[in-house]
Input
Amino acid sequence: MQMYSESDVDTTCLEGKRVAILGYGSQGRAHALNLKDSGHDVVVGLRREGASWKRAVADGLKVEEPADAVKGAAIVAFLTPDLVQAALYQGVEANLEQGAAILFAHGFNIHFKQIEPRDDLDVILIAPKGPGGLVRRQYEEGHGVPCLVAVERDRTGSALKLALAYAHGIGGSRAAVIETTFAEETETDLFGEQAVLCGGATELVVAGFETLVKAGYQPEVAYYECMHELKLIVDLLHEGGLRKMHEFISDTAAYGDLTRGPRVVDDHARQRMQEILDEIRDGTFARQWIEENESGQTNYRRMMDADLSHPIEQVGAELRSHMDWLEN
Ligand code: NAD
Ligand code: MG
Output
């Protein structure tokens, strides 16, 4: 495993160079503001009619249409939703400098060949292991979110150096920057969000809530138990792994965890995880998601509506309204 920290970074390769950030959403805003505060020359590339344009201007950034923003940039970061990046790339390719680097925060489009970059370009990845809001907040607090770095193509001989300087600019090297490949980042990132972080965790929460409510317990009590308290456990895991969680929960909870947890996430669940990983690796998932976008996201919207109208959402909204310190 190759890990880089602040002392491995040489920022001279970015001095006097321009960085173009395409997109100003979760990651785009964090990267643009952090790089600017780190002293870099940043320009944000956005559609003039889009809602993000005003926000970026209000944040004090230079904003241009994507095709103009990339002119003269040493690094062009693609930080729009993954499935609009291929068309965006087509729209700016002619204006990319010879030997510039294109940068991604997730390897999807390169790994699944939705973007086939011009031959002279360096192709690099800096993937923060956290949402954009946190990338910004940790930077402001003097910390940083760890990142993965990958070099798909190094035409200039300085692709890794440039990528590390970018990671440094957004605060990532304050934590750690671990080297990976586009394939490893893409496949593990998709697996994590599907099986564990987003898909797995929310299904576990909802299934637990439904089990308690169906058995006649109050939905409010079920909500506190299955959704609200999850954060307390996740914070302990985040700070100190399984050991810290076990130090803070009761021994009754620990005994229940050790004897019952493996019965919920059993061999059947592990088999399903393997199937999900296989579908990521053989391109089935990517194909399905690309087709869903091409057909107007009808199924995606229907499933999202169903998720957001689940009873746990109504109970949760009511209970959270009594905790006005929460950011709803
Ligand atoms: P997002 O959905 O927050 O990005 C929205 C932004 O893209 C808006 O500013 C919008 O104006 C802009 N945009 C949309 N279409 C555009 C177009 N055609 N031209 C120009 N701008 C356009 O995106 P995100 O969640 O920040 O994801 C960006 C990248 O970062 C993705 O590759 C994603 O996989 C990756 N990533 C995201 C996270 C995360 O926490 N959200 C974490 C790690 C990596
Ligand atoms: Mg879900």
Q: What stands out?
A: The CA atoms of residues 178 and 211 lie 40 Å apart.
